[in-house]
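Table 4 source record.
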Amino acid sequence: MTLAVARTAPGRPAVTSATSEAPAGERSASRTAVAALTLLVLVTGFGDGIAAGLKEATGAASPWMFLLPLLILALLVFWARGNPLPAPRYLLEAFALLSCMMLVLTLTVFLLAKVYISGYLQLAVFAATLILVQGVFAQAPRWLAQAFPGALVIAHYFLCGYVAVALFSWHLAGIDPSAIRLLVPPDATNPFPPPFRPVGFSVEPAWAALAIAASYIGIFCLVPGERLRGFLALVTAAVMLQAGTLTLFSGVFAVAYVMRNREPRVQMALFLLLAMVVAGQLYLSWDRIDSVLDGDDASLRQRASSVPVAWGVIEQSFPIGVGYGNFREFAQYGLEWRQYLNLTEATFYKSDLFPLNFTAELGAFGAVILLWVAWILARGPSILPVAFYGLVLVLSGTLLLPPLLVLTAVVGLLRQRREQASVDWTSPAEAATWGGSGRS
């Protein structure tokens, strides 16, 4: 939303809406910026389903071969058009991280001789890109600061809507229009047993839940006016996905919302809404819940069994690690794994907890990378990106998650707003600067 600042009582600006006062040309340019940015956010920040489908269709080594080049190209075009580079501290931090990772790679190759170099370089570029993206948004030009929140709102409703379309399309017509299913045959991309669970724009239900949670964090932090509607879309998607992860995040968001709005009616409404979501989850997922309570859930048993496997590798190799990509050569999987996973086909599987994977392969430096990413997400005034990362540490098997790019951009824009809010509003010039920041 475009804002203007009017002078009122001594030294304090009053914020008023000025959308209608913007020239037609400026409004058109703003809509174009939001549309282009929305497309970029959807593809590079939430497009793991498209990337995975392209990987399967082309035989590429990694889905990130399609996402990272596109994001880097977008950054280069952004800077080539005269937009500012990140502040020197971000450039130095990205350079320092890359230098450390290259040094560790050199030492690992010298000591262990064998490393998955292309995968390690992909990780290094991803980690450095997190820093650069945050730097871009920490000093975002006015058009970007105004367009990005709108792009997140559109992306959030698109992701939630896509899940709904996939669910109803399957039950009404027997067709799954999820992004990954449109690129490769369903039999090759749907390893999940019945009942049907939609994945929407993502590669699997768990990743769809993470994408929707990340987009809502952006709305919660940057677009307060959309918090309630966005939350309703989120909890609806949580029921359709049958995703415990998203239900858990619904509780986190509800607590955060209540802390900002202590009106009893709002608190009661959120409590009733969450109760309905939990009831819906219990109804739709009762068979799985029953198997979990009985200890028969294969996914839970696989996750539990992967912990001692990873810990055994860590005990053999800490603090140096076994080298990136060498986990499987040192891991000892018991006979019970035959009922969980075909390890011959799942060549890239390690364990279900990527903190253990990182520590096993990269040793102490793997733990440093995890803490570094946590620090990147903890720089803003909101705890929600850190809570998201904490859940990812427990539930994910990899750090290479596109939504982390979106969240680091959200943190960067929050840092810009906090710095602008700290400006001493004692002059009309400073008030105008605040008005141009595009604060929602």
